[in-house]
Amino acid sequence: MANSRYEYVRSFERENILLPQSHIVIRVDGRGFHKFSDHYDFEKPNDEKALQVINEAAKQMMVTMPDIIMAYGDSDEYSFLLRKDCDLFERREFKLITTFASAFSAYYQHFWTKWIPGKPLDLERLPMFDARAVVYPNAENVMDYFRWRQVDCHINNLYNTTFWSLVLKGGMTTNEAENRLIGTLSADKNEILFKDFGINYNNIHDMYKKGTIYIREYTDFPLSKYLEDPTEAHLKRLMKRVKKSTIEQYHCDIIKDSFWTQRPYLLL
Ligand code: ATP
Ligand code: ATP
Ligand code: MG
Ligand code: MG
Ligand code: MG
Fold this sequence. Notes:
268 residues, single chain, binds adenosine-5'-triphosphate, binds magnesium ion, tRNA(His) guanylyltransferase, globular
Protein backbone atom coordinates (compact mmCIF):
# COMPACT_ATOMS: atom_id res chain seq x y z
CA MET A 1 0.00 0.00 0.00
CA ALA A 2 1.32 3.45 -0.89
CA ASN A 3 2.48 5.57 2.02
CA SER A 4 0.59 8.75 2.65
CA ARG A 5 0.62 11.53 5.21
CA TYR A 6 -2.35 9.78 6.83
CA GLU A 7 -0.49 6.54 7.38
CA TYR A 8 0.44 7.52 10.95
CA VAL A 9 -3.07 6.65 12.18
CA ARG A 10 -2.10 3.00 11.87
CA SER A 11 0.16 3.44 14.90
CA PHE A 12 -2.99 3.78 17.02
CA GLU A 13 -3.94 0.17 16.30
CA ARG A 14 -3.48 -2.43 19.01
CA GLU A 15 -2.49 -6.02 18.64
CA ASN A 16 -2.37 -8.89 21.10
CA ILE A 17 -0.09 -11.76 20.21
CA LEU A 18 -1.13 -14.94 22.01
CA LEU A 19 1.59 -16.59 24.08
CA PRO A 20 3.79 -18.82 21.90
CA GLN A 21 4.14 -22.57 22.52
CA SER A 22 0.90 -22.78 24.46
CA HIS A 23 -2.49 -24.27 23.66
CA ILE A 24 -5.00 -21.88 22.10
CA VAL A 25 -8.70 -22.66 22.46
CA ILE A 26 -11.21 -20.56 20.54
CA ARG A 27 -14.87 -20.85 21.49
CA VAL A 28 -17.69 -19.55 19.34
CA ASP A 29 -21.20 -19.14 20.73
CA GLY A 30 -24.43 -18.23 18.98
CA ARG A 31 -25.84 -14.79 19.66
CA GLY A 32 -29.28 -14.88 21.23
CA PHE A 33 -29.94 -18.50 20.28
CA HIS A 34 -32.62 -18.82 22.89
CA LYS A 35 -34.70 -16.48 20.72
CA PHE A 36 -33.21 -17.83 17.50
CA SER A 37 -34.33 -21.37 18.37
CA ASP A 38 -37.85 -20.09 19.21
CA HIS A 39 -38.06 -18.08 16.01
CA TYR A 40 -37.23 -21.10 13.83
CA ASP A 41 -39.29 -23.54 15.93
CA PHE A 42 -36.44 -25.77 17.05
CA GLU A 43 -37.60 -29.07 18.47
CA LYS A 44 -37.14 -29.05 22.25
CA PRO A 45 -35.01 -30.00 24.04
CA ASN A 46 -32.79 -30.92 21.07
CA ASP A 47 -33.33 -30.11 17.43
CA GLU A 48 -31.33 -32.71 15.55
CA LYS A 49 -31.19 -30.83 12.26
CA ALA A 50 -29.93 -27.68 13.97
CA LEU A 51 -27.18 -29.76 15.54
CA GLN A 52 -26.27 -31.16 12.13
CA VAL A 53 -25.98 -27.58 10.87
CA ILE A 54 -23.64 -26.47 13.65
CA ASN A 55 -21.66 -29.72 13.45
CA GLU A 56 -21.04 -29.39 9.73
CA ALA A 57 -20.03 -25.77 10.20
CA ALA A 58 -17.48 -26.91 12.80
CA LYS A 59 -16.16 -29.67 10.56
CA GLN A 60 -15.78 -27.19 7.71
CA MET A 61 -13.67 -24.98 9.99
CA MET A 62 -11.31 -27.94 10.41
CA VAL A 63 -11.28 -28.63 6.68
CA THR A 64 -10.21 -25.06 5.91
CA MET A 65 -7.92 -24.52 8.91
CA PRO A 66 -5.42 -27.37 9.32
CA ASP A 67 -4.14 -25.87 12.59
CA ILE A 68 -7.36 -26.94 14.32
CA ILE A 69 -6.75 -30.42 15.70
CA MET A 70 -9.91 -30.91 17.73
CA ALA A 71 -13.36 -29.39 18.13
CA TYR A 72 -16.03 -29.93 20.74
CA GLY A 73 -19.54 -28.56 20.60
CA ASP A 74 -23.11 -28.74 21.85
CA SER A 75 -26.13 -26.43 21.82
CA ASP A 76 -25.04 -23.20 20.09
CA GLU A 77 -21.33 -23.37 20.91
CA TYR A 78 -18.14 -24.92 19.58
CA SER A 79 -14.60 -24.94 20.98
CA PHE A 80 -11.59 -25.34 18.72
CA LEU A 81 -8.18 -26.49 19.87
CA LEU A 82 -5.22 -25.25 17.82
CA ARG A 83 -1.86 -27.00 17.59
CA LYS A 84 0.47 -25.75 20.30
CA ASP A 85 3.05 -24.51 17.82
CA CYS A 86 0.55 -23.12 15.33
CA ASP A 87 1.36 -19.77 13.76
CA LEU A 88 -2.02 -19.05 12.21
CA PHE A 89 -2.27 -15.26 11.64
CA GLU A 90 0.99 -14.98 13.59
CA ARG A 91 -1.15 -15.78 16.67
CA ARG A 92 -2.76 -12.33 16.50
CA GLU A 93 -5.75 -12.60 18.83
CA PHE A 94 -8.08 -10.17 17.08
CA LYS A 95 -7.41 -11.62 13.65
CA LEU A 96 -8.05 -15.11 15.04
CA ILE A 97 -11.27 -14.42 16.90
CA THR A 98 -12.83 -12.19 14.27
CA THR A 99 -12.00 -14.69 11.54
CA PHE A 100 -13.36 -17.60 13.58
CA ALA A 101 -16.58 -15.76 14.38
CA SER A 102 -17.21 -14.64 10.81
CA ALA A 103 -16.13 -17.91 9.17
CA PHE A 104 -18.31 -19.89 11.55
CA SER A 105 -21.31 -17.62 10.96
CA ALA A 106 -20.86 -17.93 7.20
CA TYR A 107 -20.57 -21.74 7.32
CA TYR A 108 -23.56 -21.99 9.64
CA GLN A 109 -25.68 -20.08 7.13
CA HIS A 110 -24.41 -22.23 4.29
CA PHE A 111 -25.27 -25.50 6.01
CA TRP A 112 -28.59 -24.18 7.30
CA THR A 113 -29.67 -23.80 3.68
CA LYS A 114 -28.55 -27.38 3.03
CA TRP A 115 -30.18 -29.05 6.05
CA ILE A 116 -33.19 -26.85 6.66
CA PRO A 117 -34.21 -25.59 3.20
CA GLY A 118 -37.86 -25.29 4.24
CA LYS A 119 -37.07 -22.46 6.70
CA PRO A 120 -35.31 -19.65 4.88
CA LEU A 121 -33.38 -17.36 7.22
CA ASP A 122 -35.01 -14.01 7.95
CA LEU A 123 -32.91 -10.86 7.64
CA GLU A 124 -33.93 -9.73 11.12
CA ARG A 125 -32.83 -13.04 12.65
CA LEU A 126 -29.67 -14.24 10.97
CA PRO A 127 -27.34 -16.60 12.84
CA MET A 128 -24.31 -14.80 14.29
CA PHE A 129 -21.54 -16.04 16.54
CA ASP A 130 -19.11 -14.36 18.88
CA ALA A 131 -15.69 -15.79 19.61
CA ARG A 132 -13.09 -15.67 22.35
CA ALA A 133 -9.61 -17.10 22.59
CA VAL A 134 -8.09 -18.54 25.74
CA VAL A 135 -4.50 -19.67 26.11
CA TYR A 136 -3.72 -22.66 28.31
CA PRO A 137 -0.17 -23.31 29.47
CA ASN A 138 -0.30 -27.09 29.85
CA ALA A 139 -2.03 -30.27 28.76
CA GLU A 140 -3.88 -30.72 32.05
CA ASN A 141 -5.59 -27.34 31.58
CA VAL A 142 -6.63 -28.25 28.05
CA MET A 143 -8.13 -31.58 29.11
CA ASP A 144 -9.94 -29.86 31.99
CA TYR A 145 -11.24 -27.19 29.61
CA PHE A 146 -12.91 -29.81 27.41
CA ARG A 147 -14.12 -31.75 30.46
CA TRP A 148 -15.70 -28.53 31.72
CA ARG A 149 -17.61 -28.05 28.45
CA GLN A 150 -18.79 -31.67 28.37
CA VAL A 151 -19.98 -31.57 31.98
CA ASP A 152 -21.83 -28.36 31.12
CA CYS A 153 -23.46 -30.10 28.15
CA HIS A 154 -24.56 -32.98 30.38
CA ILE A 155 -25.99 -30.74 33.12
CA ASN A 156 -27.87 -28.58 30.61
CA ASN A 157 -29.17 -31.56 28.67
CA LEU A 158 -30.46 -33.36 31.74
CA TYR A 159 -32.18 -30.17 32.88
CA ASN A 160 -33.63 -29.40 29.44
CA THR A 161 -34.78 -32.99 28.85
CA THR A 162 -36.63 -33.03 32.18
CA PHE A 163 -37.98 -29.51 31.75
CA TRP A 164 -39.40 -30.16 28.27
CA SER A 165 -40.83 -33.53 29.34
CA LEU A 166 -42.74 -31.76 32.10
CA VAL A 167 -44.01 -29.18 29.61
CA LEU A 168 -44.61 -31.22 26.45
CA LYS A 169 -45.63 -34.54 28.00
CA GLY A 170 -46.68 -33.53 31.50
CA GLY A 171 -48.81 -30.57 30.42
CA MET A 172 -47.13 -28.10 32.79
CA THR A 173 -46.61 -24.45 31.92
CA THR A 174 -42.99 -23.40 31.58
CA ASN A 175 -43.28 -21.62 34.94
CA GLU A 176 -44.63 -24.72 36.65
CA ALA A 177 -41.87 -26.87 35.17
CA GLU A 178 -39.24 -24.37 36.29
CA ASN A 179 -40.62 -24.38 39.83
CA ARG A 180 -40.85 -28.17 39.88
CA LEU A 181 -37.11 -28.38 39.12
CA ILE A 182 -35.90 -25.85 41.66
CA GLY A 183 -33.52 -27.55 44.09
CA THR A 184 -33.57 -30.91 42.30
CA LEU A 185 -30.37 -32.93 41.94
CA SER A 186 -29.39 -35.11 38.97
CA ALA A 187 -30.84 -38.19 40.66
CA ASP A 188 -34.19 -36.42 41.12
CA LYS A 189 -34.32 -35.45 37.45
CA ASN A 190 -33.48 -39.00 36.39
CA GLU A 191 -36.30 -40.23 38.61
CA ILE A 192 -38.84 -37.74 37.22
CA LEU A 193 -37.91 -38.81 33.70
CA PHE A 194 -38.18 -42.51 34.51
CA LYS A 195 -41.21 -42.58 36.82
CA ASP A 196 -43.36 -39.91 35.18
CA PHE A 197 -42.41 -40.34 31.54
CA GLY A 198 -40.83 -43.79 31.21
CA ILE A 199 -37.63 -42.23 29.88
CA ASN A 200 -34.33 -43.87 30.78
CA TYR A 201 -31.87 -40.99 30.48
CA ASN A 202 -29.06 -43.44 29.66
CA ASN A 203 -30.83 -44.38 26.44
CA ILE A 204 -30.92 -40.84 25.10
CA HIS A 205 -28.77 -40.21 22.01
CA ASP A 206 -25.10 -39.66 22.93
CA MET A 207 -24.96 -36.57 20.73
CA TYR A 208 -27.41 -34.90 23.12
CA LYS A 209 -25.80 -36.18 26.33
CA LYS A 210 -22.15 -35.81 25.39
CA GLY A 211 -22.02 -33.30 22.55
CA THR A 212 -19.99 -33.75 19.36
CA ILE A 213 -16.24 -34.15 19.02
CA TYR A 214 -14.21 -33.79 15.84
CA ILE A 215 -10.64 -34.95 15.85
CA ARG A 216 -7.93 -34.70 13.28
CA GLU A 217 -7.14 -38.33 13.76
CA TYR A 218 -3.98 -40.24 12.84
CA THR A 219 -5.18 -43.79 12.35
CA ASP A 220 -1.64 -44.97 11.65
CA PHE A 221 -0.21 -43.50 14.85
CA PRO A 222 1.96 -46.17 16.55
CA LEU A 223 0.45 -45.83 20.03
CA SER A 224 2.15 -48.95 21.43
CA LYS A 225 5.57 -47.64 20.39
CA TYR A 226 4.80 -44.32 22.06
CA LEU A 227 3.75 -46.02 25.29
CA GLU A 228 7.17 -47.68 25.51
CA ASP A 229 8.66 -44.19 25.82
CA PRO A 230 5.96 -41.61 26.48
CA THR A 231 8.07 -38.48 26.20
CA GLU A 232 7.41 -35.42 24.08
CA ALA A 233 10.61 -35.92 22.10
CA HIS A 234 9.59 -39.45 21.17
CA LEU A 235 6.06 -38.30 20.32
CA LYS A 236 7.49 -35.66 17.98
CA ARG A 237 9.67 -38.26 16.28
CA LEU A 238 6.73 -40.63 15.85
CA MET A 239 4.51 -37.86 14.48
CA LYS A 240 6.99 -37.35 11.63
CA ARG A 241 6.21 -40.88 10.50
CA VAL A 242 2.42 -40.67 10.50
CA LYS A 243 1.03 -39.81 7.12
CA LYS A 244 -2.73 -40.16 7.01
CA SER A 245 -5.02 -37.85 8.90
CA THR A 246 -8.78 -37.76 8.67
CA ILE A 247 -11.40 -35.71 10.46
CA GLU A 248 -13.45 -38.10 12.58
CA GLN A 249 -16.68 -37.44 14.46
CA TYR A 250 -17.47 -38.85 17.92
CA HIS A 251 -20.06 -38.45 20.66
CA CYS A 252 -17.91 -40.09 23.32
CA ASP A 253 -16.74 -39.39 26.86
CA ILE A 254 -13.84 -36.92 26.94
CA ILE A 255 -13.79 -36.69 30.73
CA LYS A 256 -12.03 -40.00 31.31
CA ASP A 257 -8.26 -40.06 30.83
CA SER A 258 -8.48 -42.83 28.23
CA PHE A 259 -9.78 -40.49 25.53
CA TRP A 260 -6.61 -38.42 25.86
CA THR A 261 -4.07 -41.21 26.47
CA GLN A 262 -5.20 -42.91 23.25
CA ARG A 263 -4.47 -39.70 21.32
CA PRO A 264 -1.33 -38.11 22.80
CA TYR A 265 -0.83 -36.05 19.63
CA LEU A 266 -3.79 -33.83 20.55
CA LEU A 267 -1.76 -32.23 23.29
CA LEU A 268 1.59 -32.10 21.52
P1 ATP B 1 -6.10 -10.41 4.30
O1 ATP B 1 -6.79 -11.69 4.61
O2 ATP B 1 -4.80 -10.27 4.96
O3 ATP B 1 -7.00 -9.22 4.50
P2 ATP B 1 -6.58 -9.91 1.47
O4 ATP B 1 -6.24 -10.73 0.28
O5 ATP B 1 -8.03 -9.82 1.86
O6 ATP B 1 -5.75 -10.50 2.71
P3 ATP B 1 -6.55 -7.01 1.48
O7 ATP B 1 -5.40 -6.07 1.74
O8 ATP B 1 -7.65 -6.98 2.46
O9 ATP B 1 -5.93 -8.48 1.31
O10 ATP B 1 -7.02 -6.69 0.02
C1 ATP B 1 -8.25 -7.05 -0.52
C2 ATP B 1 -8.11 -7.34 -2.02
O11 ATP B 1 -9.35 -7.83 -2.51
C3 ATP B 1 -7.79 -6.14 -2.86
O12 ATP B 1 -6.41 -5.99 -3.02
C4 ATP B 1 -8.44 -6.46 -4.19
O13 ATP B 1 -7.54 -7.22 -4.98
C5 ATP B 1 -9.56 -7.39 -3.84
N1 ATP B 1 -10.88 -6.77 -3.89
C6 ATP B 1 -11.69 -6.51 -2.82
N2 ATP B 1 -12.82 -5.96 -3.20
C7 ATP B 1 -12.78 -5.87 -4.54
C8 ATP B 1 -13.67 -5.38 -5.54
N3 ATP B 1 -14.88 -4.88 -5.18
N4 ATP B 1 -13.31 -5.44 -6.81
C9 ATP B 1 -12.11 -5.98 -7.15
N5 ATP B 1 -11.21 -6.44 -6.29
C10 ATP B 1 -11.52 -6.40 -5.00
P1 ATP C 1 -26.04 -15.41 24.30
O1 ATP C 1 -26.17 -14.48 23.14
O2 ATP C 1 -25.63 -14.73 25.55
O3 ATP C 1 -25.16 -16.62 24.01
P2 ATP C 1 -28.19 -17.29 24.06
O4 ATP C 1 -29.67 -17.09 24.00
O5 ATP C 1 -27.53 -17.79 22.80
O6 ATP C 1 -27.52 -15.96 24.59
P3 ATP C 1 -26.99 -19.61 25.38
O7 ATP C 1 -26.63 -19.78 26.81
O8 ATP C 1 -25.85 -19.59 24.40
O9 ATP C 1 -27.89 -18.31 25.27
O10 ATP C 1 -28.00 -20.78 25.05
C1 ATP C 1 -28.32 -21.20 23.76
C2 ATP C 1 -29.76 -21.65 23.72
O11 ATP C 1 -30.09 -22.00 22.38
C3 ATP C 1 -30.03 -22.93 24.52
O12 ATP C 1 -30.38 -22.64 25.82
C4 ATP C 1 -31.20 -23.53 23.77
O13 ATP C 1 -32.40 -22.98 24.24
C5 ATP C 1 -31.03 -23.04 22.34
N1 ATP C 1 -30.53 -24.08 21.41
C6 ATP C 1 -29.33 -24.08 20.78
N2 ATP C 1 -29.20 -25.16 20.01
C7 ATP C 1 -30.33 -25.86 20.12
C8 ATP C 1 -30.82 -27.09 19.54
N3 ATP C 1 -30.09 -27.80 18.68
N4 ATP C 1 -32.05 -27.51 19.89
C9 ATP C 1 -32.80 -26.80 20.74
N5 ATP C 1 -32.42 -25.65 21.31
C10 ATP C 1 -31.20 -25.18 21.01
MG1 MG D 1 -25.52 -18.33 22.74
MG1 MG E 1 -24.42 -21.19 24.30
MG1 MG F 1 -8.68 -8.56 3.41
